[in-house]
Amino acid sequence: MAASRWVRMGAAAGVVTIFLALVGLIGGFTDVYLIGDQITFAGLMLVLPAFAAGLVAAAPRVEGGERHEMRFVEAITAAAVAGAAAGAVFGATMILADVIGVERIRTVFLNVSPQLMEFVTFGQATLVGAVIIVVMSTVAGVLGGALRVAPTSVRRPVTVAVMATLLFGFLQRVIPIALDQLKLERDWLYSVSFDGLTWIGAIVVGAVAAGVSVLKGRFGTQLRGRVAGIRGRTGPAVSPGVLVAGVFALALLIAAPMLLGSVISEVLGTVMVFALLGIGLNIVVGYAGLLDLGYVFFFALGAYSLALLTGATLNAYGIPPDPAISGHLNFYVAIPIVMLIAAAAGVLVGAPVLRLRGDYLALVTLGLGEMVTVLVGSPWLVPLVGGPSGMRGITDAAIGGLAFRDPQRFYYLALAFVGLAAFISWRLATSRIGRAWTAMREDEQTADAMGISTTRFKLLAFSIGGAIGSLGGALFAVKIGSLTPASFQVLVSIQVLGLVILGGMGSIPGVLVGALVLVGLPGLLREFEEYRFLAYGAAVVAVMVLRPQGLVPNVRRSRELQDEERAQDEWAKAAEEGETPPEIATATGATT
Amino acid sequence: MPVVGTDAVLEVRGLQKHFGGLYALSGLDMDVRRGEIVSVIGPNGAGKSTLFNVITGIYEPDAGDIRYGDASIVGLRPHQVVKLGIARTFQNVRLFANMTILENAMVGQHCRSRGGVFGSILRTPGVRAEEERIRERAKEALSFFGKRLSGYRLEQPAFSLSYANRRRLEMARALATDPQLLLLDEPTAGMNPRETLELRDHIVRMRDELGLTVIVIEHDMRVVKGVSDRVVACDYGQKIAEGTYDEVAHDERVIEAYLGTKAND
Amino acid sequence: MAGTEAPRVEAVRLSRFEQLPWRRIILVILGIIVVGVVGIGATRTLTLGKAEGGYSAGAWRDFVVQGAAQGAIFAMIALGYSLVYGILRMINFAHGEVFMAGSFGSFFFADAYEKSGFLDRDPILALLIVTAVAIGVSVGTAVLLERLAYRPLRNAPRLVPLITAIGASLFLQNTFRGFFGPQPYGYPKPVVLAGNITVLGVPVQRIQLLVLVVAVICMAVLQWFVSTTTTGRSMRAVAQDREIASLMGINVDRVIVTTFAIGGVLAGIAGVLYSLTFEQVQFTMGFKPGIAAFTAAVLGGIGSIGGAALGGFVIGLLQAVGPPLILTGFGIPSVFSLKDAFVFLVLVLVLVFRPGGLLGTGEAEKV
Predict the structure, then answer these.
(1) What is the pLDDT of residues C112-143, one digit of tens each?
(2) From A121, B122, C19, C109, which residue has the greatest number of CB atoms within 10 Å?
(3) Which residues of B fall within a CB distance of 8 Å from C19?
C-alpha cells in the first residue's frame, strides 16, 4: 500500500534526525542564527530530514515502465504522512530519552544533553515538545511535497532562492566583511545582534536569486541560440551563462583578499594550496583514471625537499640538517628542483605499481602514502627531517624585498601557481597526451592495441601529477613557515581526493569549486570544523551514488559515468526538437 | 589486380597457446605474403581470434614463433606491434565510445607521432604542425568509407553511431595507424547483406588502393569468396587446409569440421 | 582515398631501449634489494650480543606468540574482506570501521559489567553478552553499508564503489567520533584473563590463548558453513557467476547481504578480542588493523578463505617479528615505532610481486 511507503520514508527521515542529534549537529548549533533570531542551524537540521522525506514522497513514481506524476492532493497527503512519520519517530525517541533519563544516556551518547532536550522540546514538557515536533515535521514535509509537485517554472526559482538565502546565511562571517571593505551598508542585510541575515535581507536575497533564475530560464536558451548562430557551428558552444560566471568568478578570486581581510585570506590561501593539489591529483585520477590514495606522498616530498633545499633547520635542536641533502637556494630556484625530484620519485615508485588494477593500485598507493607518513615522523629519520618536531625556518619566498608569508600576499603567490598548474593541465588535456589518457581510461587494452604505451602514459600522469603535488607541498611549507609530521597524514590524500570527486573528476573548475566547498567552508565556518570529515564522507558517498560526475562535470566524464541510455535520451530529445539525428537519415536508405 | 609479392610479410610457426586446460592454438603454421588477402575460416572456438591476439601481443604464446619482416615479434607489447605496422579490429567492436569519431581516428595516429610533454604544454610550432597532420591523416582514413564518417559527424560521440558505422569507424581507426598488415576480425558480423557486400569491396580496395596486406577472419562465405587470394581453414587450433577458395571449400576435412562426418548409411 | 599514393611507413625498428623487458628488470632489481636487506638485517640482528641490543630466545618466543595472536585477529577481519571481494569483486574499504563499530558498541556493556562486578563474577556469560552486542553492531553496520552505499552501485564502473567505500569509511569513523567523542576509552579486562598461562612449556598471555582458540574455532565453523550448507553453496555460486546464479533461482541480493553479515559477525568477534588485548577503543582503531587485514587477504589470495586465514597469521608474525629481526641489525632506533610502516611495506611488496597472493599464480586476476 502506498501509505506504508510514505510512512517508511518518514521513519527513515526520523532516524536521520535522531542521527543528527546524536552526532551533535543539533545541540551544538542552537545559537548559530541563519535568519533573524528564529531560524537557527539547529532548527534547520531538525526539520530538513522531514522536508526531504516530503520531497521524495511526492516524487513521480515509475511503475510498470511508466512515469506516474502524482496528483496534487495525493502528493501533499503523501508528503504530510511522511513528514508526520518523521516527526513521530523523533518525538517518540525524545519521550523515550526522557523516560530513561538524559544523564544516563549521556554516559554513552555524549551529545544528548539537557540543552539539547531543552531545544527540541522548545522549552516545554517533553510530551508537548514531541507534539510540536510532529506538527513542524508535517509542515516541513508538506512544504517539500509542494515544492516537488510545483511546476518547474515555480520550483526552480524557489529552490534557487532558498539555497541562495541559506548560502548567505552561512557566509555570515564572510560577506559582511566584504561589504564593510567596500564601504557598503550592511546592517539591513546582516543582523548586528544575531550575526545571521535579517528577515528583510533574507527576503531581498531570495527575491533577487529567484529573479535571476526566472530571467535565465526565459532568456537563457534564446541567448544561447543566438550566440551559437554568430559563432557558427564550429567548436564547442560555451553558453554565455558559463562565460559570465567564469569571468565573475575570476574577478572574485582576484579581488577576494582585498575585500575580505587577512583572516579570511589565510583560509583562502589554504584553499588555493588544496586546489593546487587537486589539479595535480586530477591529472592522475581524472585524466588517467588511476585511483591514487597516497597523494600525501608527493605533498610531503615537496614540502620537505623545499625546506631542505632552502635552508630550513631541524626543529628538535634548531640544528641545520645534513649538508649532503640540503642547501640554501632561493625559493624560485628550488621549485623546479623540487618538482623534478617529485617527478623522478613518481617514476621510481610508479614503475613497479602502475600496472596493477584499480582497487589494488588504490591500496598500494595508500600503503606508500602511509609509509611516508610514518617515516617523516619516525625517530629514525630525525637527523634528516626532524622527526616529530619537524623543521622550521622555511623561506618566505621573497622576491627582492617582497615577502610572501603575509596571508594576503601568499594568496596571490598561490593563485599564480594555481593558474600555472591549471594552464599546464589544460594544455595537456587538449593535446595528443590528453587524448591518449582518455583512450586509456575508456578501454585500457584497446588503447594499448592502438599504439598507446599504457605504462608510459600512466607513469607520465603519475609523475606530472606528483610534480604538481610537490608544488603544493612546497607552497604549504612557505605558508606555515615550519613543518610537522601531523600535517602529513592520510587524511590529506583523502581530502584532496574528496574535492576532486565533489568538483567533478577531470574538470579543473570543478577542482576549484571542490576546494572552496570542502576546504573553504569549514575553514570559514569554524564551528563546523569538527564535522568536516563527517561531511566529507557523507558528501563522497552522496556524490557517488547520486551524481558521480560531480558538481561541475567534465562533459565527457558525465557521459562515461551516467547511463549511456540517459545520454541517448537527450539525443533523442534533440531529434524531437527539430534536428534529425544523422543515423535516422541513413536508415531511411539515403545514400551518403 | 596487383601481383602478389613472393616475400612473406608474416610467418607463423608452430604457435601454441592454452588457457588452463583449453588449447586454443596447438601448433598453427601460416604464411602471409605481401599484398595478398588471406581469409582465415573455421568453426567457432577454432582459435582464430586467439591467433590475432597472439600476433598483436595481447597474449604471449606458450610455444612457437611469429616473424614479421625478418624479426620475431613474440613477446612484444601490443603498442609495439602496432608501431611496427600491424593493425587490427576486434570481433566485438571496441571503440572509445565517449570520444568523438574524429578523436577515435586520431588515436590511431598516436603511434606515428611524437608530441612530448613540453611540446604539448607550450604548443610549439612542431607540435602544432604534428597535430594538424594527425588530424588530416585521421580525416583521410575516415574518408575511405565515403561521406558516412565525415562532415559534421566528425564531432559526434562514437556511441551515437549505428552498428555498421561503428565497425567502419573501427576499421578507419586501424587504417589511421598507417599499417602494412591489417587484421580484420569478423568485420561483417551483424551487418545486413547490402552492408556486407559493400564492406567486401572496401577490403579489396584496401589492398588495391592502400597497398595493404590483409588477414580476415570471416564466417560469411560470400565475403571469403569475394576477397581472398588464399584461404586458410582452422580447427582445434591447427591449420587443416589451405589454398584458393574453391580448393578449401571442397576439402573433406573442412567440410567435416563444419558439418561433421557422414553417418554410415 | 582514391588518387593518393599508398601511405608508406618503413618497417619501424624498435630501438634496443624499447625492447628491453623493463618490467622484469625493475622487479628483479627490487627483489634483490629486498632479499638483501632482509638477509643482511637478519644476520646482523641475530649475531648481536645482549648488550648491543640483541634479543634473547625468550624475547623471540614472545614476539612469535604475540604475532600469532595478532595474526589470528587479522585473519578474522581478513575473512570479511575476502568474502565480500569474492562475491562483489570489490574491496570493502569500510570493513575496518565495521570492526571498530562492533568493538565500540560492546564497550559500553563491558564497561557497565565491570563497574557492577558482573564481568568478574561470571566472566563467561558477561563476555558472551558483550560479544553478542559487538556482533549485533558490526552486522548492523555491515548490512546498512551494503544497502545504502554499495547496492545502488552494483553495476557502476570499478572506481565508483571503491571511492564510495572510502567515503563510507570516513563517515563511519566520524559518526562514532561524533556520538562518543574523540578520546580513547579503556576497555576492561576480566581478572580471569589477566596474566599468563603456560601451554606446552611456553608462557603465553591468557588473552592471547583465548584469541587463538576463538579464531581457530570461528574459521573452522566458517569453512564448514561455506562448504556444506545451502547458503554457503549459494555464496560460492554467486561468487563464481552472479548472473547465472540468479538464473538458477538463487536470491542474489539475500546472498550478498548474508555475506556482509558473516563478515560482520567475524569482525565483531575480532573487535572484542582486539579490545580485550589492547584494553582500548577509539574511533580510529579500525584503520590500521583494516589495512593489515586487507594485506593479509591479498597475501593469501583474495577470495579464498584458507588464504585469508593463512595470510592473517603470516602478517601477524611478520609485523611482530619483522621489525626487530631485520631493522635492529641496521642500528635503527625504536624499531617498534616503524611496525606500521613495515606492514605497509609488506602490502606494497605483495601487490608488486604477487598480486595473486602466495597461493596464486603471480598474476593479478585478468581484468
Answers:
(1) 998 888 888 888 999 999 999 999 999 999 99
(2) A121
(3) 76, 80
